[in-house]
Amino acid sequence: GENVEQHPSTLSVQEGDSAVIKCTYSDSASNYFPWYKQELGKRPQLIIDIRSNVGEKKDQRIAVTLNKTAKHFSLHITETQPEDSAVYFCAGSNDYKLSFGAGTTVTVRA
Amino acid sequence: NAGVTQTPKFQVLKTGQSMTLQCAQDMNHEYMSWYRQDPGMGLRLIHYSVGAGITDQGEVPNGYNVSRSTTEDFPLRLLSAAPSQTSVYFCASSYGDSNTEAFFGQGTRLTVV
Q1: A27: helix, strand or coil
Q2: What CA–CA distance (Å, rounded) separates A60 from A46?
């Protein structure tokens, strides 16, 4: 099955700086790669996603890139703000199974 | 439109007891799934369903049963609870298959003593 690895496990950034989280996947059949944000004690919520026929997608301060050949994808958050502090999960899907990475705890320092 | 509703929010079980975690969605989504979340391990897929009457195993199915008699409901049954099943459980639903946005319930925190 799919194996999604996520790095780093923790990330501390100064407010206003950028944050980058990287993920790799193993199943070449995976074709959908979402990113979820989970605040403490809350449910995960989708923040951005990308499909295998797209190399890059941007939504305001958040962007994702996908390299199908290398089987890796990344989340970029620019101009970080205190409300960006949360756990972020990458995931890969092959139509029927959505597999998650272990998560990255992002802390934005004021 | 309530989205995905899970009950209960908290539960304590004794080893060997059985129970059912309830999950219901009102978005007419075909695809539903159950995950468990443990520290440092992300969300791991237990079982999933692509529609009423159809279920399949995920990554960690042992010790859990599911059924899908209606589009709206997807209960998760723990047959004989073990301390290793202490976790936070999330139900999710999505339109079509797993290649669209998953909407999560609020989670059930289960402790097995």
Answers
A1: coil
A2: 15
- The per-residue pLDDT for range A12-60, each reduced to its tens digit, is 999 999 999 999 999 999 999 999 999 999 999 999 999 988 899 999 9
Q: Which residues of B touch A42 (CB under 8 A)?
A: 106
CA distance B60 to B85: 11
Dmax (CA) of chain A: 41
Residue B7 structure tokens: 């009950």
Q: Which residues of B touch A94 (CB under 8 A)?
A: 98
> Does residue A43 belong to the interface with chain B, where contact is any CB pair within 8 Å?
yes
- Is the CB of residue A6 less than 8 Å from the CB of residue A90? yes
Angle (CA) B46-B49-B50 rounded to 5° is 140
What value, to the nearest 5°, has the Cα angle with vertex A65 and ends A64 and A68?
Answer: 135
The answer to whether A108 and A81 are in contact (CB under 8 A) is yes
Q: Which letter, b or e, does each residue of A71-108 get, where b requires 16 or more Cβ atoms within 10 Å of its Cβ?
A: bbbbbbbeebeeebbbbbbbbbbbeebbbbbbbbebeb
Neighbours of B45 (CB within 10 A): 24
